[in-house]
Amino acid sequence: MAEALYEPYAEVLSVAQSNKDDLEALFDPEQGFAPRMRKICRDQILAYEETGEYSDELELMRLEENTWALLQAVMPARKTEQSVLNSPRDLLQQNPYTPTSTIAQAIMGASPLLTELVVIREWLQETAPAPSHPEATTGYWKFTKHSVMQALRTGAGSRDGLVKEMDPDAVNREDGRSLAADDASYEKNLAQALYGMVRAGRLDEAIELCRRAHQPWRAVSIRGSLFFHWKAISNENDFEDEEDADMWSGNRNRKLWKSSCTRAALNPALPDYDRVLYAALAPSPQTSLILKSACRTWEDHLWAQVSIMCEEKEMMELLRLGGSFWEGGLAAVEKGVRSVSQETVEDEEEQWEKEVHQALDGLKSVHVEDGPAADHPFHFSQLNIILDRSSYLLDIFANGLQNGSYDVVAYEYAPMCRFFAHLCLYLKMIDIPVPPNSAVIILEHYLQVLEAAGQRDLIAMYAGALGENAINRYAEFLVSLELASDPGERRLALTRARDHGLDQDSVATATAEMSMNKAFEILPPLKGPLPSVIGLQPPPPDPETFLLRSIEWTIFSETTYDRALEQANHILRYFLASGRIQLAQKLLSLLPVEISSIAEPEEQATEYLHYRQFFNIWENLERVTECQALEVPKMNRETRNSWLADYKLLIDQARELITKLLTSEWLVSDVETAGVDARRRALIRIRQIYVPELIIRLHFTLFNSRHHFPDNLNLALKLSNIVADSRYKLYEDFNNQSGRRLGDYLEAPPAPSSTYRHFMMSKHSKLRLALLRLSLTFSLIATSRAQAWQEDPPSAAATKACQILNKTLPGLVFFPGAANYTSDNFHYAATSTQNSTCTVEPLTNEDVSAILKIVGQEDVRSPFAVKGGGHTSNVGHSSTTGVMISLVKFDQITANDPSTTVTLGPAATWDQVYAKLEPLNLTVVGGRIPGVGVGGLILGGGYSWFTDQYGLALDNVVSYDLVLPNGTFVRVTDETEPDLSFALKGGYHNFGIVTSFTVKSHPMNGIWGGTLSFSANDSELVFSAVEQFSANNTDPKAVLTLTYNNGVMGPSLVANVVYDGPVEQPPAVFEEILNLPLTGNTAKARTLTDFTLGEFQFLVVPQTGFTQHVIPTLHYTVPIMRTMKIQVDAAVAKAIAEERSIATVGMNCEPYINDFAHSVDSAYPHSPSRPVTPGNPLSFYNDVADREYFEQLIWEMSEAIHAVVIQEGQGLPDDIHYPNYALADTPVELIYGENLPRLREIKERVDPTDVMGLSRGFKI
Ligand SMILES: Cc1cc2nc3c(=O)[nH]c(=O)nc-3n(C[C@H](O)[C@H](O)[C@H](O)COP(=O)(O)OP(=O)(O)OC[C@H]3O[C@@H](n4cnc5c(N)ncnc54)[C@H](O)[C@@H]3O)c2cc1C
User: Fold this and answer.
1) Per-residue pLDDT reduced to its tens digit, 623-666
2) 871 lines ligand 1 (CB under 6 A)
3) Which residue of 129, 154, 497, 590 has the smallest Cβ count within 10 Å?
4) How many CB atoms are closer than 10 A to CB 371?
């Protein structure tokens, strides 16, 4: 309820502050600050009283009202110059008949403390409880009188025990006799009422009451307390008329009166109430005890003490002066005024002041019968205000606030903060020094109270009162505004700063800065592995939104745009360096256009332009992707031409823009090269994220569009030259690709010399390897003709076939020199690449049929190859020196209706498939790494993240569109062609060419997954966790793979974990491995696309030399994995010692638990009765000429590991070998096992002339 007071207080403060140098106005008894505060309290008290509730609040409010009343009384006395009166000594020397009241006035004027005490006494009287009034009486002792009169009349004695006389002393005099009960009770009530009136300073009312009670002598004794006053002889000239001048009042012999009162107060024979009344009339140290016995409240005690001190001081001074006729008669006049040195006067005054302080100090702990105790904060405050210790008081309260001594939810907390805040401000206004720190603390807390009470409109005003801190404090308040508040509300709050005299720009700048700092305190620092910028990003958590919206403060007004520029850069830097590209885009969209034209500071202006440049490119690349998606198979010529023109324009723009960025020291042109400050670190991190990203995106944009624009392949090659160009040092941006820290990068030796060999041998940086791979591979595309490994010499048959094909399928056949020729022969591994005689890109089943017929024609019989995604690791399996049948145009991805199946072209890649199906909440069983083709992976098996749930990719095929070796088209299903359906499940191109696969779809609602990195030194711990997982995992949704690599960059050990489903928290099944010491962890809830592209993009980069094989295993045990590691390390050591072009040798462990559980009738035998899961030893190397060396190395390594697998009881020598990993030399018996006879029989049937035998691969 008291919350309603914030505004009235603020209003009073606002008026007072406008009068802040006008003491008179501030002390005005009606409109001054304290009286108005008092009035607010009073109104509130009345409101509380009306409700009858809020007793605690009511009491607090009363105390506050009293405190303002005290301030109202005491501050003017303390701060206003008192008119200089004649000293009492001068007055008496001039006129010994000067009336006592005039002398007393002069005594008071000579002592500021006494003046204050008198004022305080008046305050205490004014605020005293209203005195009670006894019932009116019709006569003096009327019941007793009746008995006395009767006794007199009858001569008999008075009634038993009653007094016999009516004089006031009768009770005391007549031993043991008393008044009639009603009179006695009346007497008591009367004395108490009179005491109450004296306590309230209402002497006239008391005198009137005595009159009405028929006790004039009591009126006399009350009047006796008044000093003798007679203007005519007082040297006072301000009397208004003569009559007034001649009037005298007060007690001419006060001294005598006082001693009588004192005696009466000390007289034990008198009733207590009478004694108290006398003690109140003549307060003195002697009567102190009796007076204090009547004190109930703390205020009573204070009043008693102050009254005693005032009375004593005046009496003491009068006595010390001497020379007053009215105090000492003629004798005193004759003696004259005593002369005392000024020094003595001052010493005595000082001594008295000490005594006063001591006495008042005693009230700190006085026992109180009624009302709030002595140590109540308001009593404590009042006492310190009286003692002129406001600084001490404020310090104590501020300390308490700072130490958290007060309970912020207690009902008194807010009112006390409010009171003290206004006290500080009031004291400041009336020029009473206030301890600055304490004032700030108190105001700060009051601001918090206002904030908590939602009093936003008042914040600026009180913050403004903080002086130097005002800007920051108001800024703090603005920072605290809820995110929910709309920009309009925030802008209004900012403009209020100006209304209260704060510089709006400074407040805006401080607010922006504080908001950013606050957000940065919570947000993760920019370190650790580089973020993925692919796929959907999660919605921003509050601190990111907070950071984003901090820009509002500096863009509200044009005058802070320069600050906005710097701030925008800072935020953009953070968002981009943490991969939050959409937030960075959002920030840019909020900024006013004028920011772009700010030229100074140059460094900031350039940085900002660089961000704009980047987003221009980013948006352009998005448009490329959108445009790409617009391509549909059945476009009419005009639409296609128009689409092609748009597509080309966008690609050209992207290439130009990216090339410009890559060759222009983007972001670091203005950055000092020396030193490693945070800004530089962030900028380099941004380059490390986006430069490789842009290069890869541009590369794939060019590469993927090569069919439409063959020249784009050459442009992709040019890109590789830029990447390799030492002037641009783009290789440095490939640093940190695996999460290495900038520190590592900066500590690395100087950039390598131009020779790749030297470059490669430096073990310091993974970036070099990444760059090496990229640039070498790009270069290799250009030089592949010269370097490609030639197994079969070009044959006349192939030449013939190509000629016929060229005639039969004009426009679809390509020869060396054509870009399509290069891309058709291109493989993920250069070691799987050969130079064909020609390539052909069929568009339809009929085209495929024609091709097979031509190559198989009796008079031709040309060697050929069939290429899907080109990821085989075996040379010749999808490469040839004869006719390359590139299925590149069969790349469709179609979700069918009903959505239980999806139809896929063999040249589509799995990442494309996932991205297309994800919006439909669908997925299929497919490859785990981007870039791998649909065709080979399905025809050879297909291990997926979902294999434990749904089987291999081939277990999920519903139908195949197949062109048989004789050119016949057939749709193969289990029902229509059971043999072919069986044969194609593992049979690759032994039975014809598949032009599309219809596969089962499965629900996809996101996954939880990522990469966990470990130190290779912890391999035993990791192996043990994987062994446990391999043996005990029963949840088919959980999949884990482990990879140990070693090579020129040293060893690395990583696990990939995936859990199918929208799980936010790490699934318990991975608990053990997650609890190991991790050096990196990217696992989180995400989309499958984000995971696939985010975690494995580094593998997308084409490889120079790539060889792999398979080791079938039932479970992974520690000894098996230990052997793998030993074998990998040994192979690396061997290759290095023998100076082979090794990059990496590694081993992937794939502990599937259920991979054969969904097996269907298939050529690749994977019966649940004999389960195994693949292990995948592999190597990457940099010289195609080393292919056979590494094939041998991997073969030997696999043999050694397989021996331990068998020894460990986890396998048999004739366990089935997974063909998609198997080395070309693997005997087909180990691939097809017992299925071989049936396959041979089918083959004989569908391909009697062995057309498919003209291609290489695992031949039946
Ligand atoms: C980086 C990388 C990641 C891999 N990830 C996985 C994985 O997660 N799971 C997994 O099981 N395997 C994986 N593999 C192995 C992969 O499955 C095989 O290399 C697969 O054969 C590649 O298929 P492709 O279409 O890309 O290759 P290609 O080289 O084009 O084809 C491979 C074989 O299939 C034949 N073929 C392709 N399409 C057709 C067709 N339409 N009709 C007839 N024959 C055809 C080719 O003639 C060739 O013999 C990966 C390989 C690499 C290099």
Assistant:
1) 998 998 888 777 888 888 899 999 999 999 999 999 999 999 89
2) yes
3) 154
4) 16
